[in-house]
Amino acid sequence: MVTLFEPLNVGDLCIENRIIMAPMTRTRATQGRVPSDLMRNYYCQRASAGLIIAEATAISPQAVGYLNSPGIWCSAQVEGWKNITQAVHNKHGRIFLQLWHVGRVSDPELLSGQIPVAPSAIACEGQVSLLQPPRDYVVPRALSQASITDIIKDYKHAAQNAMAAGFDGVEIHAANGYLVDQFLNDSSNQRQDDYGGSIPNRARFLFEVVDACAEVWGHGRVGVHLSPRGTYHSMQDSAPASLFTHIANELEQRQVAFVFCRENDHSHDITRIIRQAYTGTLIVNEQYNFERATQTIQSGRADAVAFGRPFIANPDLVERFRNRLALNRTDPDTYYADGPRGYTDYPSIAQS
Description:
Residues 4-328 form the NADH:flavin oxidoreductase/NADH oxidase N-terminal domain. This is Alkene reductase. It holds the Pfam family Oxidored_FMN. One of its GO terms (molecular function) is FMN binding. Residues 333-352 are annotated as: Disordered. The longest helix has 20 residues, at 145-164. This protein is 32% helix and 14% strand. The radius of gyration is 19 Å and the shape is globular. α1 links the parallel β3 (19-21) and β4. The model has no long low-confidence stretch (mean pLDDT 96). The chain is of the alpha/beta class. It contains ten helices and twelve strands.
């Protein structure tokens, strides 16, 4: 019977267990969005995960949407990440970088006065995260086809930089209402060209990004992060089952390293549809505990389970699961902060 603690082939990579550290924005980068020594300590503490998917990382200055999140477009950022990947590898860990463009989920204050970009000039509902004073999201600038081509080049450049920084692969962030997801959903994409309208057209941008990154890494080192039926940042699609069936079929043909689905497990979830169309490694995430994760692996509904908040508070989560030990509780006030409190100061079992 398969357990969470057995090895797993993830594309071209073999990982030691099926407990994945989910990518989580923690806002601890230094000036210039350079990964910090504090971040190195944070990831190094969690190197026992079968695979770490490092936090969402902006591919260009235009891609940012949060204060103090890291980037991967310049040499200083590459060097900062290199310190982290070397530390994780020294502890026999594996780590992918999540490549990120937030699209319309940003603000001119974060973009040197520039207007955020999106598939269509439709504003995200709500207010910009973490900025003061509070303000609504602005109406974004609709991308031209030439600008779309430039962004795909930015993804490829970021993938090259991730390789130079020593990562084991990259994950495309195509979820949670950010730029790729904005192209996928017909509520945010009302284009009338090759990137809008039909499902294949709306998914075109995702596959061009995947293929551009695969030119650097090969498809076996490129994962894709999805949120089927997700409503994050005003996302909504009129036919999500058809949309994600098409996506799964295309990713199956490309034999990507993995598909990561963030969707709460229930009887009608779209992840089950994806599982039928995609035979590669499937990672699931959202509100899993040890028991639900074990049942999911044993039933074959997924190959691995990613944990977010449990990894925040438990750097030794794998050991705690293996020995069925109690978990530390997270401090939500420190999720998006600075300094070590609520970041690198959670005790391991050896320190308790």
